UniProtKB/TrEMBL annotation:
The gene is thrB. Its main location: cytoplasm. This is Homoserine kinase. One of its GO terms (cellular component) is cytoplasm. It catalyses: L-homoserine + ATP = O-phospho-L-homoserine + ADP + H(+). It comes from Paenibacillus dendrobii. Belongs to the GHMP kinase family. Homoserine kinase subfamily. Catalyzes the ATP-dependent phosphorylation of L-homoserine to L-homoserine phosphate.
């Protein structure tokens, strides 16, 4: 049943490849995007916020196209849509903006027609579009997601992040698209590197599941993508080696970069030291960057309400942080 009043949803950002978990381990983060969707006489796409620059506002828009996939799958015909989107998630920085748009579009379109598709189905569709399940899983389900994608079916387990876990991201002021950052990866790896990552990834997942923050430092390393991508982010190689000496529990490239992400004990008295170290190291390499303290987001995609009681911007105003 189509909801004539429309819906609006909120979707968290995400970090993929958490440490050794390349293409498999992701976490939702407390930066959000909002999507409003309504059936309409004529398609109208309104994008708000500085993060939306350059995104198309016609039917080639990703959110419109993904919404139509949901309608096709559910056997519903809604060719014309009014879509509104506001996002605080930086574009093309390794914080899952594309995953948030895909998950938001799937979730909103499904809610608009009375949610005939299960969350497992939405996860499968999202993974088929994005091609790896860690960003989309985290944005859809929230928390920490470990997932497997065999090209047809995605399986996952969601873990609740430990309450002491805080996240510091350092976002460089340049963009790095995932497709560009995948081109530098080798097609094959050695058995030693495979064992290196499998062992650390397995232990990291178990440690996160049991709240063993003391094990993060020894498990957050990687040989599958970070060494190859280090040349794309000035300062990254040094930061990956040294950040734990400045108070991080662990440090990783967030997704395909260029953002670097530190896991931090929120009670640590070295938070200022860590932030200054990360920013100064990037500055020394000529990179301007913004530091943001975030929390893991326990909530994934959420239906917030319908569009009957005001304009999209008025509806989300109370939720968007200044
Ligand atoms: N709200 C959106 N609407 C349409 N396309 C989007 C939206 N958000 C992101 N994208 C697309 O995703 C691209 C960024 O994806 P990607 O390179 O994977 O980086 P990341 O997901 O880390 O931000 C953008 O250049 C744009 O093409
Ligand atoms: N596993 C992917 C992750 C891409 O994440 P994004 O947030 O940078 O889109 C990869 O490393 O290529």
């Amino acid at each position: 049943m189509i909801k004539p009043e429309g819906v609006y949803v909120r979707i968290p950002a995400s970090t993929a490849n958490l440490g050794p978990g390349f293409d498999t381990l992701g976490m939702a983060l407390s930066i959000y995007a909002w999507i409003g969707m309504k059936s309409s006489q004529e398609t109208m796409i309104r994008l708000y916020g500085s993060q939306m620059e350059g995104i198309p506002t016609d039917k080639s828009n990703l959110v419109y196209k993904v919404a139509q996939m949901v309608f096709r799958e559910a056997g519903v015909h809604i060719p014309e849509l009014e879509i509104s989107m506001y996002s605080d998630i930086p574009l093309t920085r390794g914080l899952g903006s594309s995953a948030s748009a895909i998950v938001g579009a799937l979730f909103a379109a499904n809610a608009l027609i009375g949610s005939p598709l299960s969350e497992a189905k939405l996860f499968n569709m999202a993974t088929a579009i994005e091609d790896h399940p860690d960003n989309v899983g985290a944005s859809l389900f929230g928390g920490i997601i470990t997932a497997v994608w065999d090209g047809l079916h995605a399986d996952y387990i969601r873990m609740e992040p430990h309450e002491d876990l805080e996240v510091l991201v350092v976002i460089p002021d340049f963009q790095l698209s995932t497709s560009e950052a995948r081109k530098v990866l080798p097609a094959q790896i050695s058995r030693q590197d495979a064992v290196f990552n499998i062992s650390r990834s397995s232990l990291l997942v178990a440690a996160l599941a049991q709240g063993r923050l003391d094990l993060i430092q020894r498990t957050m390393s990687d040989r599958l993508h970070q060494p190859y991508r280090a040349n794309l982010v000035p300062g990254m190689a040094e930061i990956l080696k040294e950040a734990v000496q400045h108070g991080a529990l662990g440090i990783a490239l967030s997704g395909a970069g260029p953002t670097l992400l530190a896991l931090v004990d929120r009670h640590s008295d070295r938070k200022k030291e860590l932030e200054a170290y990360l920013l100064n190291t990037m500055k020394a390499k000529g990179i301007r960057a913004t530091a943001r303290w975030l929390n893991p987001s326990s909530e994934g995609a959420q239906l917030i309400g319908n569009m009957s009681s005001g304009s999209f911007l008025e509806l989300i105003k109370g939720e968007v942080k200044a």
